[in-house]
Amino acid sequence: MIPLKASKLYIVEGIEENPIARQRSERLKSGIITDNIEYVDDEKLNNAVLSDEFRVKNHGMNADIKPVVVFNRYRFEDTPEERKRRQEKYPGIFKITRLSGYGGIDWRESGSRAYRKRTGLVCNPAFQLHSIVGCHFRCSYCHLGHFVNIMMNMEDMITYIDDTIKRAPGQTLYQYDNYTDTVCFEPEYGGSKLLVEYFAQREKEYLELYVGKSSHVDHLLKLDHKGHTLCCWSVSGITQSQNFEYKAASMEDRIESARLCQEAGYHVRFRLSPIIPVKNWQEENRELIRLIFSQTRPDLITFETLRFLDYNKIHQTMDTSLLDPEFINLMKEAQGKPCLQGCQIPHEYRKKIYRFIIDEIEKLSPETPYALCRASRKMWEDLEEDFTRHGQSPDYYVCNCGPYSAPGHELLAQKSYS
User: Fold this and answer.
1) In whole angstroms, what is the distance from residue 240 CA to residue 353 CA?
2) Distance in angstroms (rounded) separating the CA atoms of residues 108 and 182
């Protein structure tokens, strides 16, 4: 496990009474660096939330955040009546993602017909797997470093995955876990091993293990995945990875860890996400894409530009002297105008970035498919010729976490990992 400096560690009631959860808790304690450990019930945890200990705001340029860490547990066994009682009595713990103990095998509504109609964005709905919320890294545009919630009874999730698969027989790919770079907590946590070995026994279903911005993969290299796990990295160029993604692995180390996983037989994919338009963004992304294809053979690449930050928040969270002046000026001009994705990057500027990324991929590996991540339908239509070449459209495409985007799909580049 990568050590994590914390302001406090809360351990919820019920963990000490569960031998497996208690053992996991003891293993992880060695990696949580704090002298402040407290055992809590619902009331105490609720009071902590209401006292604003669990902040949710972008990291900005603060690399020294010490999160509140919670060793929590799933409550799959709770009746609807018990859940209602807890929600009425302890509303604070229901305000923070997964803090209440519910969820873990969650339906992602984005991409449904209603979502597409309401937002104008193209995405795919799916069931996703979650056991940790919160991150080791301090990316300036993100907020997931202020608290970390970790489920200790991971085995309980495994018992419910079979039922989920039966409910969604067409879904072939299950993503774990995009609320964090879960591998940073391994091998002490053991969640990756549990899920890799579970999906190794499945015939049609695959696991997408989100490695994210980490290079912490040694624990994966000897697992018997039987080709049913793909690993996905979020990658960025030099300036972005060094200056806006504090404490994350370097560009080179992320791609080297992908090479190691590829050698170990895992399917490999990449997300250029989020693309931040720094000065010389063309040259830096060209270097990134060349490094990807010189070291690995991904079967898919997806990309998206920065989301959720407007002009004012960009100034609050980033050193704007490192950003493309055209980007900054366009964001300033767009203030107050309607926008998709909470970020006022004009459509034509986004398209210029995507056009560049597509051209670079096509130059180096024309057989490798690519897709936009949560982009507008108009963007798909504007780039229709490129996607059509790979048999894709906004209504039929493969992406990193799409429910039908498992290895073997007819739209994927068929790579040999032997």
Assistant:
1) 15
2) 19
The two structure tokens encoding residue 27? 């293993």
Total domains present in the chain = 1
Q: Is residue 417 part of a domain?
A: no
Tokens coding 14:
């019920």
For residue 333, give the H/E element and its range: helix 325-333
Which residue range forms the structural domain that includes residue 323?
4-388
Contact predicate 86/14, CB 8 Å: no
pTM of the model: 0.95
CATH code for position 20: 3.80.30.30
Which strands, in side-by-side order, build the sheet including 301-305?
Answer: 105-108, 126-129, 173-176, 206-212, 229-235, 267-275, 301-305, 370-372
Task: Say if CB 146 and CB 56 are below 8 A apart.
Answer: yes
Instruction: Write out pLDDT tens, residues 250-291.
Output: 999 999 999 999 999 999 999 999 999 999 999 999 999 999
CA distances from 18 to 14, 44, 122, 151, 185 (A): 7, 20, 43, 12, 20
